[in-house]
Design a protein that fits this description.
This protein is an alpha+beta fold. The protein is built from two helices and eight strands.
């Protein structure tokens, strides 16, 4: 008889404890991972006059507040056939009046809901120069949400 009286209060405590927690299922489309590949051309880079770097904003609806709070976003730049995780230092060859110049540029990214912003800055912290007619850069961004 004592076993029954002990089990009933324990069972009630367990049920009460479970009912006080909240759970919600969050779905990320029909997959937990999405990927995007985009190319940024030399004339897509923006100099806003207020920063020491150039940037290119790319809209993408996969960057949601939920992704920024609990997901993972990884961005890559292609260097030849290889995707290199950002930030990455890449040699950029510019054509100037005196010929070709190769400069190491730091490529990084920033995230906000609805967009990915790629940044390019000289290694010395200065503004990249001579981008006119430089080769385009291809980026890949992967978004993943946790799986329950």
């Amino acid at each position: 008889m004592k076993k029954r009286t002990l089990i009933l209060p324990l069972l009630m405590a367990l049920v009460l404890g479970l009912s006080m927690t909240s759970c919600s299922d969050e779905y990320f489309g029909d997959s937990n991972t999405r990927a995007m590949t985009t190319t940024v051309y030399w004339n897509d880079w923006v100099d806003d006059g207020q920063t020491s770097y150039l940037y290119a904003e790319v809209p993408w609806d996969a960057i949601t507040p939920d992704v920024l709070n609990v997901g993972t976003v990884v961005a890559y730049v292609y260097d030849g056939d290889y995707q290199c995780p950002l930030p990455y230092v890449i040699p950029i060859t510019y054509t100037t009046n005196t010929g070709e110049v190769t400069v190491a540029e730091n490529i990084s990214y920033d995230l906000a809901p609805g967009k990915v912003t790629f940044r390019m800055q000289d290694l010395d912290g200065g503004m990249p120069e001579g981008l006119t007619n430089s080769a385009p850069m291809t980026f890949r961004v992967v978004v993943s949400m946790p799986v329950d």
